[in-house]
Specification:
Blueprint: E1 3-7, E2 10-15, E3 18-22, E4 29-37, E5 40-47, E6 50-57, E7 72-78, E8 83-89, E9 97-107, E10 110-114, E11 117-120, E12 127-131, E13 138-143
């Protein structure tokens, strides 16, 4: 094994280019893949058909919305072709707003998840609707060649 990664919630070890991980949401071994999303470093954990994408290193400014290392951005499933599940939109002072997304691998190490995302009240946390025009409606993840 060439790399070991540990935290309070997981123990990961890499071998032959694949990273295996014991994750907090499952007691069985799975895979860890590192992606980049809007200048944040993200961890994609896959155990069987279950998938969870969390922030590893959020980009500057996201802490104001309550995003920290380990914050979940997506949780759902992957059937070998399609991702399906719940993503979360964040706003400072508000609870994360869940919304349904679907996605596929877009090739070249990219994953794209899409779904009408929450639109919040201008001065508050209430979700007033959902829109495909929201900046959260299309989430693009690029496999990271620099973060392992």
């Amino acid at each position: 094994m060439n790399k070991t990664k540990q935290s309070p919630n997981r123990v990961c070890a890499g071998a032959l280019g694949t990273v295996l991980c014991l994750c907090a949401f499952s007691s069985s071994a799975g895979e860890l893949h590192v992606f980049e999303h809007n200048r944040s470093v993200m961890n994609l954990y896959m155990v069987s058909d279950k998938v969870r994408i969390t922030y590893e290193t959020p980009r500057p400014g996201l802490g104001e919305a309550g995003i920290r290392s380990g914050t979940v951005l997506f949780e759902g499933s992957y059937d070998g072709e399609r991702f399906e599940g719940t993503a979360y939109a964040f706003k400072a002072g508000c609870r994360p707003a869940p919304y349904a997304v679907l996605g596929r691998s877009a090739g070249n190490g990219q994953i794209v998840l899409q779904g009408p995302a929450p639109v919040r009240a201008k001065h508050g946390c209430a979700v007033t609707g959902y829109s495909v025009e929201s900046p959260h409606a299309r989430l693009r993840f690029s496999h990271s060649a620099t973060h392992h």
